[in-house]
Fold:
Amino acid sequence: MSALENFEKMLAAGRDNALLRYSLGNEYLKAERYAEACTQFEAALAFDPKYSAAWKLLGRARMDLGQFAEAAEAYRQGIEVAEARGDVQAAKEMAVFRKRALKQLGEG
Amino acid sequence: MQDRLIPILKVLGMVIALFGLTMLFPLVISEAMADAARHAHDEAVLATIGSGVFLWLLTRHNKRELRSRDGFLLVVLIWTVLPIFAALPLLIYLPDLSFTDAYFETMSGLTTTGATVLSGLDNLPASINIWRAQLHLLGGLGVIVLVVAVLPLLGVGGRQMYKAETPGPMKDTKLTPRMEETAKGLWVVYLFFTLLCFIAFWLGGMGWVDAVVHAFSVMGLGGFSSHDASFGHFNSPLLEGIAVVFALIAGMNFATHFLAFRQRSFHPYRVDPELRWYLFIVLGSCLGLALFLWYQDVYVDFLTALRYASFNTISVATTMGLANADFNAWPYFAGLWMLFLCSFSTSAGSTGGGIKMMRAILLYKQVYRELVHLLHPNANLLTRLGGVPVTNKITYAVLAYLFIYIASIVVLSFVLIASGLDVFTAFSAVVATINNTGPGLNQVGPATTYAVLTDFQTWVCSFSMLLGRLELFTLLVVLTPAFWRK
Structure:
């Protein structure tokens, strides 16, 4: 049984919180099921809008879907949250990813 | 009762405060890297050191020395209370994580089990991953052995605690006249190998955070990784080679390493009665499973089969628990054989779990002696280990140990099955936790986590890890009515 199946089972059993949605999104991302990953990260952020790691992976999933404007927006919000929490490392990373998303938009 | 508990609580306070000091390492890392877990470490350090000092201040006037019996209770208290404080950084950083899961995670860290409920490890702050792995380092040779080594105050009654915690049946073996020196010597050797492992990983291409996490994890024979894909993340035969060499070293008796260092000779390795069996069984299994996987067409060529079979077999047999492949997807025989190996392969005095090779050899010799007795009823046969006769007292203790070990696996498996878990998951979860290995099979296989368990099942597995780490008797004796009688 895979981690993805386990997390889906937990969700179906009614165990629902930001951490579970984030974990599920992460597994969808690994399985290259990007649209489902986005849905899960958005659900995680609905629980906890200050979850900087979820913003980061939401940006990545949107990048993989080719939604560069939406990805840049996710990174922007992620950077705000990370800076507010003092998470300099994550903010720096997301700033680099945001630049890449904007670059893609410029070329597009 | 109060008279009995106060001196125990006094030492417990000291140990908690000292444990709080070890939390400064991830705090420094967090500050240096400016990651998001700084406030979590700040608050955890303050709460832990504060609680330890408070407990000590309340009980400091008591001067009674610890008795032999107190050692058992103190060790059990230390191993049940420290995971609570260890869980604080996780609980503060991940507010959605339940206390049950956080306690499981840190119990898994300290007992060097390496079973995790967390996923998204790649995106956790470095300081949190380092803290998880640091628990393996601290738990590897034992928190008490560490405390005895660095805190001479615990010399009072320390021998009882040391004996209650140290793995293996030969706890009275004296390496140096003073126990503090022995504890210090073992820790120096342990830290030396950990440093060497870190350097090897770093030179082999790992980033320094990964190198720290995996060096702690490998030498403690824990299994926490900083990546969801565990060691498979690196996809590097070189790093895998380094990991298995150090895992094999960590699975040997550290007393043997200590003597080899002191004598500057390989002689202690040559005369170690467990070592040849340990290497023969583990390395022989690598070869056998590689042939099996190749024959079953799991891997198309023998060398690839050998690579994955070797890493995962050594990892599980030594109770390290890192994985570079989903061995849950292999034919059942392979996974079950690996779990069977983790039950007895590592040496006494190593950082591994299970019943230990020394007990397995003694059991084998005892069975052989019984068979010879059937043929020669009047023969006076002695069981020897490394040329030294083994007393019947030790043999009976080992037989009792084996009985309790098997009974514990059966009872805990039934408890998990009764709580709704399938038979295969339940059995493998108990074997993987009681032997402090980590990954089991089916729903708790190497590609997934223990998060799928209900709270009740998670507590059962936490108990199983503790039971295995304290080698059953230390924990069970505290649960007997006789222990609490005056």
About this structure: Residues 1-97 of chain B form one domain.
